TrEMBL record:
InterPro entries: MHYT_dom. Residues 10-199 form the MHYT domain. It holds the Pfam family MHYT. It comes from the Bacteria. The lineage of its organism: Bacteria, Bacillati, Actinomycetota, Actinomycetes, Kitasatosporales. The chain crosses the membrane at residues 12-33, 45-70, 82-104, 111-134, 140-164, 171-190, 220-241. This is MHYT domain-containing protein. The keyword Cell inner membrane does not apply. Residues 247-286 are annotated as: Disordered. Keywords: Membrane, Transmembrane, Transmembrane helix.
Length: 286
């Protein structure tokens, strides 16, 4: 039996909130990546790790907030906790690999292509692994062409985001890059969902296990709290928020040329001529 899929059970609420979470995770991750380029090597890894975890948490949170609006009308869905948590770990690890490549190799074409490909595959893998954690009396089927399109969207978006992280400076420009990344990640998600069809088994009914609200709501608390804490760290570091300070952008002023005053030779002191009788007490001068 073919299941009736509804991806917008709560209307535009879940897509909008999911998009905002993707933007938040992308903004924090991209600014941390940019900040790592101006940090010493011991601290660079910490900034990159914070950026990778922010992006991974953001896209994972976006995915499962959007999944709150996903339903199959003939079936109640449940989620496997282990696979759902594994999708979060996979997202953080693969995004981290891509970010570390760009963070240590710089904005070279090879580093951007490699890092963007790994990051994009991490986003897509997180999505489909999360979908594999759904439990129901049936099975999912995907359209291969649409799935391939969703993966291409993820890779292109990740490459563009990493390029923006290391090339774009300033708060407004970085904010624009995070919005583009949020749109791309959301587009990848709903493109992948458009490839989905559900085939229910005969006699399908309510699946035993936790409902989506019971599983997803508590699991979202941790990543959302982490994003809030990462935002606090970003706010307390002005280089993360504003990029390079203005005094670093200005060219250095030339050193003042020392002024040399003309030097004149010291005047020669001439001795006064000695006159007879002056300053002499000899009787011969009387």
């Amino acid at each position: 039996m073919h299941g009736t899929v509804d991806g917008f059970t709560y209307g535009l609420v879940t897509p909008v909130v999911a998009f905002l979470m993707a933007c938040l995770g992308g903004a924090l991750g991209l600014r941390c990546t940019a900040r790592s380029l101006r940090a010493d090597r011991p601290f660079r890894a910490l900034w990159l790790a914070l950026g990778a975890t922010s992006i991974g948490s953001g896209i994972w949170t976006m995915h499962f907030i959007a999944m709150m609006g996903f339903s199959v009308r003939q079936e109640v869905l449940s989620y496997d906790r282990a696979i759902t948590f594994a999708s979060l770990g996979l997202a953080v690890v693969m995004v981290g690999i891509g970010i570390f490549i760009v963070g240590y190799r710089g904005a070279t074409p090879m580093a951007l292509v490699t890092g963007g490909t790994v990051t994009g595959l991490g986003v897509a893998s997180m999505h489909y692994l999360g979908m594999a954690g759904i439990r129901l009396h049936g099975e999912f089927a995907y359209n291969t062409l649409t799935v391939s399109l969703s993966v291409v969207i993820a890779v292109v978006a990740a490459t563009a985001a990493l390029w923006a992280a290391v090339s774009v400076s300033g708060f407004l420009a970085s904010l624009g890059a995070s919005v583009v990344m949020g749109l791309a990640v959301s587009g990848m998600h709903y493109t992948g969902m458009a490839a989905l069809s559900v085939h229910l088994h005969d006699g399908a009914g309510t699946t035993a296990g936790d409902s989506s609200a019971t599983v997803l709501a508590p699991m979202l608390i941790g990543p959302v709290a982490f994003l809030v804490l990462a935002g606090v760290v970003v706010m307390f570091d002005p280089l993360v928020v504003m990029g390079r300070p203005e005094w670093e952008k200005r060219p250095p002023r030339p050193a003042p040329v020392p002024r040399h005053l003309p030097s004149f030779p010291e005047p020669t002191r001439w001795a006064a001529p000695h006159r007879p009788g002056e300053g002499s007490s000899s009787p011969h001068d009387w």
